[in-house]
Amino acid sequence: MADTAFSGKSVPIKPKLSNDDWIMRGAMILIGLVLIIAIILPLYAMLSKSFEDSDGNFIGLANYVEYFSTPALFQSIYNSLSISVIATIVVLVTSFLYAYALTRTCIPFKKFFRLVAMIPLLTPSLLSGISLVYWFGNQGVAKELLFGESIYGPIGIVFGSSYWVFPHALMIVITALSIADSRLYEAADALRTSKIRTFFTVTLPGAKYGLISAGFVVFTLVFTDFGVPKVIGGNYNMLATDIYKQVIGQLNFQMGAVVSVVLLAPALLAFVLDRIVQKKQVALLSAKAVPLVPKPDAKRDMFFLGFCTLVAAVIIGMIGMAQYAALVKFWPYDLSLSLNNYNFDVMDGGGWDSFYNSIELGLWSATIGTVVIFFGAYLVQKGRGFEKGRGLFQAIAIIPLAVPGMVLGLAYIFFFNNPDNPLNFIYGTMIILVVVTITHFYTVSHLTAVTALQQMDNEFEAVSASLKAPFYKTFTRVTVPVCSPAILDISIYLFMNAMTTVSAVVFLYSSDTSLASIAVLNMDDAGDIAPAAAMAMMIAYTCLGARILHALLSRGIMKKTAAWRGR
Amino acid sequence: MADKEKYLRIQNVVKKFGDFTALKDVSLEIEEGEFICFLGPSGCGKTTLLRAIAGLDIQTSGQVFQAGRDISALPPSERDFGIVFQSYALFPNMTVSKNVAYGLENQKLEKSQIEKRVRELLETVGLPEQGEKYPAQLSGGQQQRVALARAIATSPGLLLLDEPLSALDARVRVHLRHEIKELQRRLGVTTIMVTHDQEEALTMADRIVVMNDGVIEQIGTPIDVYRKPECAFVADFVGHMNFMNGQVVESDRIQIGSQQLAAKTNGHKPGQAVQVAFRPEDLVAVEDGDMNNAISVNLKDIEFLGSFFRADLTGGDLGQSTINADFSINLSRRVNLEKGRELKIRVPADHIRLFPMEG
Ligand SMILES: Nc1ncnc2c1ncn2[C@@H]1O[C@H](COP(=O)(O)OP(=O)(O)OP(=O)(O)O)[C@@H](O)[C@H]1O
Ligand SMILES: [Mg+2]
């Protein structure tokens, strides 16, 4: 009875922080500060640069006025937009059909088709341009197919862009189409709904969000890509190539900054729209959903087998041509094979050193990046209290996804090349390349880590605390082993992107730190197209090797841990 | 107060999530060695209170004392408790032994000592042979025992259990109930268990804390909570209860339907409208014609529930209202329990409880 007889007032409590709390918050703030230095401050530096003249005086919107009164410049906005829209439509249709074939039909060789579709991820986007030159260029083998049109221009850009962004869209659409509840289809069947109608009332709406998301991804990738228009664009100007021309060609950094802002704006818009749309998405797959198992249908399967074969042939044709051209002695006059084009040391572009630099960059980015990103995600996801700080960190970690590589690279020039910046010393070194690469690919890695961490029981940390185990013990002994597949995924993602990226590093390499992807660009620029193809293929083989290693490691881990993963 | 400091004292605890107040000024004292159950409907704040005691989600205001120490603001790592969650939260990549040893390793014990203790613990929870298995290779009930062994490994002064049995199927649950209770008695560890299963609370607890909507409605032994609910909520939530609108007629008489009955009115004034409550199992079918405190009703429906029958009664003195009565199998052999027949039912005065009208 006396239990509730306290008369005291309720005393406000200020929780005392444990050592773990201090360390975790400290570490999170540290990583957060690094992120701010790596993304927010450079972007700010770039933005302010666009309001300055070449002597650094504030001149308001004068640069923008100049930009918009120069038709040659703002014509690029229209060019970039229209190319991106067309490529988006092309890729969405192709990837949807391809994904549909892989998930909803009974065609044979699905595994093969899936693997082939991933080939474009192995190379810089430059490669698709180079291949197109050999297929349809002035001395191309299939030039006649264009009926006199030139590949150097919109046609080439759309084709080349569609090739290299295809796997990005395909992965999203496959995921969307894999999530299907067969009960819906059975219901449609029971109601005698025609196949076409079922497609438009069940299939399409089910994949809607995936398609929208893929659309935004493709649009942004094409809109901000630099590699394809650089190689195959001819005189057709796009925003990304304009930045390059302004900065590298004319050393007009202010105008480069203005174009960057113009490039950033639609990319940001697409990013925000995508976020809004994804928020609306409700979980379509209830726990009770029954996965759809496609039934054979000869006519439909024939059609899709034909379609997939065609697409796969194009992809293999693209990479195959690059390989062939790399081995040919002197296109098109002496088609005998040799390894002459791999003699990179006698050409401009940094030689074999640039290849080794790339590997070094890949390894650094993969190791440091994985550690920092995973640990950061852990701190955000599993920290105790400090909601505001964690929310802010989460928000900052999303930003890099919205920032095109070129813009980030240029922003780094403005920020790190400033003699007043104490971090100026990293300019021109491998360090800045590692930093820009990790930053550029931060978000996707972060989200991968977050997803893996979310699947872990939230009470592990609570149990550990009650057992007086410090957080780092549980982190290393439980969190890391359980999340090891995701950690591997992050590291391979960072490695492959470090190998293939051009846009993020094109402004930042020095003669000592040239990279393989940059060598491709520069050799192509200098007219050494075959060596450029050869170098691009070296990148492809390296990425392929890394992928295979990754697959073996993953399988090994899965096998070793099968006992406790419960199959 | 002169009496000895209680083991755990929770004083005016308030927990807010933004604008929402999940705990509204909760106070509670727990003796050393007691087994306490927090019982209440979903969302009433049981887990919130448990997590405040553990320091996992520290209260907005109010204090918590454990063994005389003010632990109100301390992080979990500086408190003294073991905890078991509904999800078990066993480390999936560690064997059962490793899981149990996890807390012991932090106590700087020697390896052989740890091994010995782990063996003891696994024996205690009835899993002596399972040490080398991984959690995924065990059944739910076995996993729960491992979680329990891990929680008591470091001999904490307080054991916290958040719905430890609710993920298990019914038979295992009943079995584990006894085991947990037995273990707790043997160890003498002060224990708080959260549950929304009243049967669990009634069978296991020394005292039950019935919660609703962020406040404690009643604290008492299982028998008290069942027999002497202090409010309509507790009466309704614990066990099955018939409620009828009625009126106090005299200081020891009430009226329900068209009948007057003797009842203890506990301070309710004559003329006052009240809720009259009595349990189905307290109703007695009149077989000898003695109409003392009895009402006449019609048997509307009857349902076989295994060990007894539950009858829906209406009409007669009840008018439109319906009540339930439980009849034993024995009675059904003596009395014809045909649907539609008329019955006389005694409502023993001792078992009638009155509550103020709501609203
Ligand atoms: N982190 C939180 N943020 C906001 N509201 C919360 C949070 N945690 C709990 N609540 C709210 O506080 C109330 C009490 O929650 P609590 O988890 O304590 O309920 P419970 O009694 O344990 O219920 P159950 O039986 O469902 O576990 C609920 O209304 C819940 O929605
Ligand atoms: Mg709960």
UniProtKB/TrEMBL annotation, chain A:
Q: GO biological process annotations for this chain's record?
A: transmembrane transport
Query: What is the protein's given name?
Result: Iron(III) transport system permease protein
Asked if the keyword Lipid biosynthesis belongs to this entry, the reply reads no
Principal place of residence: membrane
Ranges for domain ABC transmembrane type-1 come to 77-274, 355-550
Name the InterPro entries on file. AminoethylPonate_ABC_perm-1, MetI-like, MetI-like_sf
Signal sequence coordinates: none
Where does this protein come from, organism-wise?
Aestuariispira insulae
**TM annotation in the entry:** 22-45, 77-100, 112-137, 157-179, 199-223, 253-273, 302-326, 361-380, 392-413, 425-444, 486-509, 529-549
Q: Quote a single Gene Ontology cellular component term.
A: plasma membrane
**Which Gene3D superfamilies does this chain map to?**
MetI-like
Family classification: Belongs to the binding-protein-dependent transport system permease family.
- On whether Transport is a keyword of this UniProt record, the answer is yes
Question: Could you tell me the membrane topology recorded for this protein?
Answer: Multi-pass membrane protein
> Where in the cell does this protein reside?
Cell membrane
Which keywords does this chain's UniProt record carry?
A: Membrane, Transmembrane, Transmembrane helix, Transport
Pfam family membership, one: BPD_transp_1
From TrEMBL, chain B:
Any one Gene Ontology molecular-function term assigned to this protein's record: ATP binding
- Name all ABC transporter domain ranges: 8-238
Protein keywords: ATP-binding, Cell inner membrane, Cell membrane, Membrane, Nucleotide-binding, Translocase, Transport
Keyword Cell membrane on entry: yes
Give the domain of life.
Answer: Bacteria
> Membrane-spanning regions, if any?
none
InterPro entries (alphabetical): AAA+_ATPase (IPR003593), ABC_SmlMolc_Importer (IPR050093), ABC_transporter-like_ATP-bd (IPR003439), ABC_transporter-like_CS (IPR017871), AminoethylPonate_ABC_PhnT2 (IPR017666), Mo/tungstate-bd_C_term_dom (IPR008995), NA-bd_OB-fold (IPR012340), P-loop_NTPase (IPR027417)
**Which SUPFAM superfamilies does this UniProt record tie to the protein?**
MOP-like, P-loop containing nucleoside triphosphate hydrolases
Q: Which Pfam families match?
A: ABC_tran
GO biological process annotation, one example: quaternary ammonium group transport
The answer on whether this UniProt entry bears the keyword Membrane reads: yes
Query: Could you identify this protein by its name?
Result: Iron(III) transport system ATP-binding protein
Task: State the organism of origin.
Answer: Aestuariispira insulae
